Amino acid sequence: MTAQQAIAPPCAPPGSPGDVTPTPGVIHVNSRHTSGFTVIGNHLAQHGDLSLLAIGLAVHIQSLPEGAKIGVKVLAARFPESEMRIAAALRELEAAGYLRRIRVRLRDGRVRTRTESHNRPYATVPPVPVPREAPRATAPTPIAPDDRTPAAAPAPPARQQRPAPRPLPRPTAPTGTLHRTAALLLADLRRHAPVLTLSEADVTTLAPGVAAWLERDAHPDAIRRALTADLPVPLAHPARLLRHRITALLPPPLPAPVAAPPVIPLQNCDGCNRAFRAPEPGPCRDCRDARP
To answer: 275 in helix, strand or coil?
Structure first.
């Protein structure tokens, strides 16, 4: 009975005198990043009004390279959230100023959407100071003693007015068949491009323009290709785009067919029975010359 048996585990070693009792909150264990990182401000990470999905989506968008696609369908394919939740989060970022969508009209009439991601809300970004040029030394203009009338202020420049839109073309000889064919063509566009789903009022308004194309012998397939080719994404106003294309791309009328030259019939000579061309029967030229 001289050997002692250990019946309990040894106690934990005592801590050093400088140890601090841990708090129940988070403890940051930070490592320095040297590559592959994105700087995010606390105004976004600790935003009081944005949802957690919107904050996480903003962090993801700011970490993407320039030119990356951030459409609703692209983000829904990347994350498990639905398109409805992602679209709502994008609207939150737009309202908070972290996301900005600008519609830009190209020279050919197409409209494109440019998306900007701001690491700070664009409404609160301080303007960039523009350096001012130093004033040039000029000789002072002498003023007459009795001339105390101040100079008149220059008139403000005239505001340029936007040109009025061109009127929708109309057929010169409208018929019921032309109007029905044009209306059916417009209503059928949604089968080829779902974004071109028009209301009944839009079809009635645009039908005369398509009827003008049909009156100028434009084939329905050619009209459909001209109206559905290279559509902008996203397309907010399909009726406005169709009105612009119907007006701007209207083909010219076909020229009148050239009449064929008259054909002089063949005649048999009364003297030598030789065939020759003449408007009326009679002798040929040789027989006429041989006569006394």
So the answer is: strand
